[in-house]
Design brief:
8-stranded mixed sheet, disordered C terminus, alpha/beta, single chain
Length: about 800
């Protein structure tokens, strides 16, 4: 064994002892608080778990690569449709054109209606979805009957025997089978025969597919298609996405074709129904005109041989007539008007009873036009024709079950069956009362005035009725002609502008994004896992865990000893180790003085307390202080083998009074360092170190030595370490980076709160001077050139 544990040259100046004493007498200054970067600890965790992080990133990248194999690029196709503006805003003075079918915003709803999408689904057989997308070509021409059975199926094609079998999935029940000439699933509502080329090849081919309702397929299409119609714009932009560009373009083109076709059908139906309504009104009005003309003709035939009223009266004659005559003629005119109104009302009531409502023009008479009841009746008839027209327009786009249609029919029935008859009968009763009153008055004066003709008044009334009927008939005839012209030249309000074209390049390719997400996600997961493991790590990793969690100042740090120990080729490591123990020596001397008794322990085994004890004792001896190192680990102490001495007699022998003090103290190769081995291992060893002889031994050693160092058992081993520490009165705790359990160390150190022990600090052992420990290192290149590199205890114990 070499002469020294650490090859430190003796201080030839002889002033080391004096310097240490001066340092011990100097007042201690508080250690400055080190502000650490918030990313320092995460970076340390990353360095510690770097290989685990690399494995996670590699695994995540591999998973992303595998995922990209199942991803297919998406192709987007686009089309444009033009929409005709509302005809209500067009110039009325221009040529005759058909009105717009829907408002601009309603075209999107028509495009997305099931009337259009279901037709697209059935036309392209999109309700059939094979599990393998390429099998869709086998089902070309597949259609459904009016009633079909939907579900999942499996088709097995026996190509050598030209036969097939259809089973239900997942039950596996056989539903149908046949040969190459048979139709597939006819009893299930399938209209399809397997093409002959599907039987080419050998072996059996299995195809699994799903037949869903056309409405489900329509909903799936509606979730993919995109529509865009700007406010005030006449262009409807359409987009559709699919993994097959050809299929996407085909679906969108068929969709727009069905959309234009459906719009044309709706427009044609609307104009046809409008034309039919006008033709019905025209026919009714023609009958009214014929009736008025026949009445006028009959009147003139009956009065052609009778004398008529003379020519116009000369000026001034009217004023000189008898007031009775004047009143008679006025009453006669009024009576004639009332009588005519009664006849009209009778005709109206008869027409209503015959399920026909005539025009309001029949009520335009002088005797009843301004009366409230007449106005109510005329308003009711006007409202009836308006609602009849509104019903015709509603039926152009709505079904009989629609609430609007039902409401209009109910209101028409109310007008025709109750209100119009009620107003007509009320007006008729009023006019008959007036007629009766006029007839009584005229009868009184008829004896004297019966020669005045009344035929002219009747003729005028009939002529007036004829003229009114003729005017209404002419108006309806013009509107009917316009409607027929619009129907004959009707064009859809929408037209395809830009058809969909299958793109060459995919619109959306998620493979690079998935790979990027996999890499970034792997890095993120690795960082989170590293930080989480660092948070959950119970081992001591950072200096602030010693000061904050354990409440101990850091007395010094000891670097990690390289594998193979210290040799002449590792001068820098030797210098760092020497300076580390010089720092520990200074800390102990500054805390306890130049003559000190110090116990060195650790919370658990394997933390390097024996190495620290031996080399610290050597450092004190090199400083010129008379030092004795006592192996207080009576159970597993191994310092005797480090120094090359037998283990007995030693400490336990002296405490057991089987050996004297002189017999247990051994002199080492260094004149200032003595050593006391552990002694004989006994069951009573723990009781011996707790006896009164241990404090007496320490007092004797204090009298003979400047420094008394005890290497104690670990605190977790039992009471020995606490007893020796209490006897010396001072303790230095050795903790090892990455080995010491912080919770265990905290619990063991808490017991010293009730013991008269001065814990002067912690020694951080096995430190790599990087990361959080970088500030505890030593500047390279300042080692002494004549300082040899030893291979003593450090090399063997480390």
């Amino acid at each position: 064994m070499p002469d020294q544990l650490l090859p430190l040259p003796p201080d030839r100046s002889g002033s080391t002892d004096i310097q240490l004493r001066e340092m011990a007498q100097a007042p201690m200054t508080p250690s400055p608080t080190i502000e650490r970067s918030p990313i320092e600890r995460p970076l340390a965790a990353v360095r510690r778990y770097k290989w685990l992080m690399v494995a996670i990133v590699v695994a995540s990248t591999a998973a992303g690569y595998v995922a990209t194999k199942f991803l297919k690029p998406t192709y987007e196709v686009r089309a444009s449709v033009t929409i005709q503006a509302d005809a209500a805003n067009q110039d009325r003075t221009g040529p005759i054109r058909s009105a717009s079918l829907l408002d601009a915003n309603d075209w999107v709803q028509l495009f997305r209606s099931f009337a259009v999408t279901d037709a697209v689904v059935r036309k392209l057989s999109l309700f059939l979805r094979p599990d393998v997308r390429s099998d869709i070509y086998v089902f070309e021409g597949f259609t459904l009957a009016d009633k079909a059975v939907f579900g999942k199926y499996e088709l097995k094609i026996d190509r050598p025997n030209k036969r097939w079998t259809l089973t239900q999935q997942p039950s596996g029940v056989e539903l149908d089978k046949g040969t190459i000439a048979d139709s597939l699933g006819r009893k299930l509502g399938f209209l399809y025969r397997i093409p002959d080329w599907a039987y080419n090849g050998t072996g059996e081919r299995t195809i699994r597919f799903t037949v869903e309702t056309p409405r489900e397929s329509s909903l799936r299409l509606l979730s993919i298609v995109g529509t865009q119609l700007q406010i005030g714009s006449s262009f409807l932009r359409l987009t559709y996405e699919d993994r097959d560009p050809e299929l996407a373009a085909k679906i969108l083109n068929v969709w727009t074709e069905e959309f234009v076709t459906k719009a044309a059908q709706l427009k044609k139906r609307k104009l046809t129904e409008f034309t039919q309504t006008l033709e019905g009104q025209l026919s009714t009005q023609k009958a009214s005109l014929d009736s008025a003309e026949r009445a006028l003709q009959a009147f003139r035939v009956n009065t052609i041989t009778q004398p008529s009223e003379g020519g116009p009266i000369a000026a001034g004659v009217q004023d000189t007539r008898d007031p009775v005559i004047k009143d008679y003629f006025e009453r006669k005119i009024e009576y004639a008007n009332v009588k005519g109104d009664v006849a009209l009302l009778t005709t109206l009531i008869r027409s209503v009873a015959q399920d026909s409502v005539p025009s309001e023009a029949l009520l335009l008479t002088r005797s009843s036009a301004d009366g409230p009841v007449s106005q109510q009746l005329r308003a009711a008839i006007t409202d009836y024709h308006a609602k009849e027209t509104e019903l015709s327009r509603a039926l152009a786009t709505l079904t009989e079950e629609h609430p609007t249609v039902q409401r209009l029919r109910s209101e028409l029935s109310e007008l025709k069956n109750r209100r119009i008859p009620e107003y007509a009968n009320g007006l008729l009763r009023s006019l008959r009362a007036r007629e009766y009153d006029d007839s009584v008055r005229i009868a009184d004066a008829d004896e004297n005035l019966r020669r005045i003709p009344q035929r002219t008044i009747e003729e005028q009334r009939l002529t007036r009725n004829r003229d009114i009927a003729s005017q209404l008939y002419t108006d309806l005839q013009a509107r009917s002609a316009n409607a027929q012209l619009a129907e004959a030249s009707a064009t859809p309000d929408v037209a395809l502008l830009d058809p969909a074209i299958a793109p060459i390049s995919p619109t959306k390719n998620t493979k690079p994004r998935v790979m990027l997400m996999a890499i970034v996600g792997g890095i993120g997961a690795a960082l989170v896992l590293a930080i989480l493991l660092d948070k959950l790590d119970r081992k001591l990793r950072y200096p602030d865990q010693v000061t904050d969690d354990l409440g101990l100042p850091i007395a010094g740090t000891v670097p990690t000893i390289p594998k193979g120990g210290i040799s002449k080729q590792s001068a820098e490591h030797t210098f760092q180790l020497v300076e580390a123990f010089r720092t520990l020596r200074m800390a102990a001397t500054n805390a306890l003085g130049p003559r000190l008794a110090l116990a060195i322990s650790s919370p658990a085994p394997g933390e390097g307390k024996s190495l620290i004890s031996a080399n610290l004792a050597m450092s004190f001896a090199e400083a010129g202080l008379r030092t004795i190192l006592v192996d207080g680990d009576t159970r597993r102490g191994a310092l005797h083998s480090m120094f090359g001495f037998p283990e007995t007699p030693g400490l336990t022998d002296y405490l057991g009074q089987s050996a004297t003090l002189a017999e247990v103290i051994r002199s080492t190769s260094h004149g200032s360092l003595d050593f006391m081995p552990r002694g004989t291992r006994r069951k009573r060893s723990p009781e011996l170190v707790t006896s009164h002889r241990l404090p007496d031994l320490i007092d004797q050693l204090r009298a003979s030595y400047d420094v008394v160092l005890f290497d104690t058992p670990p605190l977790a081993a039992g009471v020995d370490g606490y007893s020796i520490s209490a006897a010396t009165g001072a303790l230095m705790v050795v903790v090892r980076n990455g080995v010491t359990d912080r919770r265990l160390a905290a619990e063991k150190l808490r017991l010293f709160e009730r013991l008269p022990v001065d814990v002067i600090g912690a020694v951080l052992n096995g430190v790599n001077w990087t990361g959080a420990y970088g500030y505890y290192g030593y500047a390279p290149g300042y080692d002494a050139e004549d300082e040899p590199s030893g291979e003593g205890a450090i090399a063997r114990i480390g």
